[in-house]
Amino acid sequence: MADFWLTLVDSLSLAFSEAQALSGWEAVAVLLALAYLILAMKGSVWCWPAALTSTAIYTVLFWQVSLLMESVLNVYYMGMAVYGYWLWKHGGDAQDGTPIVSWRFTTHLKLIAITSLVSLVIGYLMATQTQASFPYLDAATTCFAVITTYLVAKKVIENWIYWFVIDAVSIYLYMSKGLMLTSALFVLYVVMVVFGYFMWRRQMKVQPELTVPPLMKAV
User: Fold this and answer.
1) Keywords, A to Z (predicted)?
2) Any bridge partners for residue 101, and if so which?
3) 134 φψ region: left (φ > 0), alpha (ψ -120 to 50), beta (else)
């Protein structure tokens, strides 16, 4: 029993030390990530530059704590930040920005089924071939975040529902790795994505009907 408590104290001390070492850059990344979400909720194109800088920092942080897929995910985020900026700035039929759209329920079911299958395969490979922590959860959050980030760039309103689930699971991952500021950020994210959904819903109702491409309505 004494050995158990000694091991527990040592583990907590190590986690605290690692958290202190990461806290400086993590704080910058958290502030930029929060700015990204607030700007995205408002539909501002400037959310993407904030995302680009934040994800560049997180790419390094996650690699240092062995969340390998999360690190790779943030490399993808950097690319999507550039794509999202261009799409929100020059997308749409009139090339004056992408309108908010909604996809059919059946489309989302297919997307969820395919993404779940891919995440199981990647999780198995990570569990058997790497030293990654929480391989299946890490793979699942990564795969769904890849798809959901694309939905954000395309301004698909249901992206907020995907983020709600992804963020809730991510809280557990980050707390387990001593990323306390990031964990706190994702707790806030879970609340904010609800507001984001309703804000986009209001914006979608008042946007000019003619700006919505007919093909996107039928998705």
Assistant:
1) Cell membrane, Membrane, Transmembrane, Transmembrane helix, Transport
2) 156
3) left
| C-alpha triplet 30, 32, 36: angle, nearest 5° | 115
- Domain ranges in the chain are 22-217
99: helix, coil or strand?
A: coil
Please indicate, yes or no, whether the overall pTM of this predicted structure exceeds 0.90.
no
Count the helices and strands in the chain (H runs, E runs).
Answer: 8, 0
Tell me if 210 sits within 8 A of 195, measured CB to CB. Answer: no
Residues with Cβ within 8 Å of 37's Cβ and at least 6 positions away in sequence, in order, are 47, 189, 192, 193, 196
Q: Which amino acid is at 151?
A: L
Q: Which has the closest alpha carbon to 145: 67, 45, 64?
A: 67
Q: How far apart are the first and last CA of the chain?
A: 59
Q: Which of 166, 153, 164, 171 is nearest to 193 (CA)?
A: 164
